[in-house]
Amino acid sequence: MREAPETRQSLLLRLRDSQDHQAWTEFLAIYEPLIYRLATRNGFQDADARELTQEVLLAVSGAIDRWDPDPKLGSFRGWLFRIARNLMINFLAKRRNRPLAIGDTDFNRLLNEQPADASDESRYFDHEYKRQAFHWAAERIRREFQEHTWQAFWQSCVDGKTVKEVAEKLKMSVGAVYVSRSRVMARLRKEIERVGNE
């Protein structure tokens, strides 16, 4: 699959309205599991990962008005990753009962405006975003297809079975499996692009 698109700016602008439940629902469906997986990958236990996820989402809701979509400042996912990384550090520092050096507001603003580095964690965050966007989009479009069409796609593209195996199992022709795969992938791509840049 191509590189995952950035979260579309219209969604990010709609998040500035705390009463836009549809925008927040869409945002949470993609990013909440992503933040949770990042936390567990960094050694957080389930309860702590859930607490951290909530802290990150609260921080985003409080700071989304100040997020600057200027590409020179980095992507939204980079900004979100920095928030998550900083809150993980703060969370661990609090747990160790050490005093936390906070810094002044200008310093924090400067830190948050820096593009995220291309660390392994940052790459992992991007990879997990792509994975989450795929599963989110797949869930949204699945009802649009008959079960055998969906299974032909899923088994051959996701489960990694050969087209011939899938055709035999589903009692379809090899050509029908390829057509099913193509139809679902085209629709899936369209849904993922809808979430991405407009």
Structure description:
Helices cover 70% and strands 0% of the residues. The chain is built from 9 helices and no strands.
Please outline the helices and strands.
Layout: H1 9-15, H2 21-41, H3 46-63, H4 76-95, H5 105-113, H6 120-141, H7 147-158, H8 163-170, H9 174-195
Give structural attributes.
single chain, 198 residues, mainly alpha, Rna Polymerase Sigma Factor, Chain: A, Arc Repressor Mutant, subunit A, 2 domains
Question: TL;DR of this structure?
Answer:
With 198 residues, the chain is mainly α. It is built from 9 helices and no strands.
Class computed from helices, strands and strand pairing: mainly alpha
**CATH-derived architecture of the largest domain:** Orthogonal Bundle
Q: Percentage of helical residues? A: over 70%
The CATH C-level class name of the largest domain: Mainly Alpha
Biggest beta sheet attributes: none
